[in-house]
């Protein structure tokens, strides 16, 4: 177990982990395959080790749990805004690209209806679904939704996702020890939440 703690701590020690997490979270709105959630969970596992979640020696340098949460949440919102502005200015080329995809078109329509009636919970759900954040942010910009309708929900989505991801890594380490097993179980829980969010987002809205 101690070896696992040291391995996790070695990968996440030092202030550079915040930069790596921020860049990964910011960019995964454009490249959804980036493992930003895995990075956040791994760093949170190391933070749990530094808090004394496991017995024995722990790494001297571990991420601060609050700073990690704020870093991930802020980067999520900034990434959403960048995608929103890119799509807003995308013009006819982006509109044609979206129109060629029935999935994107349908998602865009659901998003517009949800935001129009104040149901921005869709934005929060989509943050957990694979590529859902990309569809929502680009869709909101492409349809020229008002930023005041989109930004508060984006902020709530980013904070909810960051808190959930950090909590998985932190409490997973508390229960299972700061080991790779704890990280794997936490990542599996993150993927399970993504599958559930995908199911809810794809459901037809009730009449």
Architecture overview:
The protein is an all-alpha fold and 207 residues long. It is built from 10 helices and no strands. Helix 7 packs across helix 9. The longest helix is centred in the C-terminal third of the chain and has 30 residues, at 147-176. Belongs to the DedA family. It is found in: Cell membrane. This is DedA family protein. It is a multi-pass membrane protein. Residues 53-170 form the VTT domain.
Please sum up the structure shown.
Helices cover 76% and strands 0% of the residues. It has 207 residues and is an all-alpha fold.
Key descriptive features of the protein:
single chain; mainly alpha; 10 helices; 76% helix; disordered N terminus; DedA-like; transmembrane; transmembrane helix; DedA family protein; membrane
């Amino acid at each position: 177990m101690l070896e696992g703690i040291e391995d996790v701590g070695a990968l996440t020690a030092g202030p550079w982990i915040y930069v790596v997490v921020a860049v990964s979270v910011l960019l995964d709105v454009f490249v959804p395959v980036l493992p930003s959630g895995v990075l956040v969970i791994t760093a949170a596992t190391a933070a749990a080790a530094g808090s004394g979640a496991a017995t024995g020696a722990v790494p001297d340098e571990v991420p601060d749990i609050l700073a990690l949460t704020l870093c991930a949440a802020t980067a999520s919102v900034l990434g959403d805004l960048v995608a929103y502005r890119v799509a807003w200015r995308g013009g006819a080329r982006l509109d044609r690209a979206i129109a060629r995809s029935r999935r994107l078109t349908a998602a865009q329509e659901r998003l517009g209806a949800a935001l129009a009636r104040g149901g921005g919970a869709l934005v929060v759900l989509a943050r957990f679904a694979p590529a859902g954040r990309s569809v929502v942010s680009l869709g909101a910009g492409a349809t020229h939704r008002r930023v005041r309708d989109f930004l508060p929900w984006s902020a709530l989505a980013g904070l909810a996702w960051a808190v959930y991801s950090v909590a998985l890594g932190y409490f997973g380490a508390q229960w299972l020890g700061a080991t790779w097993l704890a990280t794997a179980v936490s990542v599996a829980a993150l993927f399970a939440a993504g599958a559930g969010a995908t199911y809810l987002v794809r459901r037809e809205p009730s009449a």
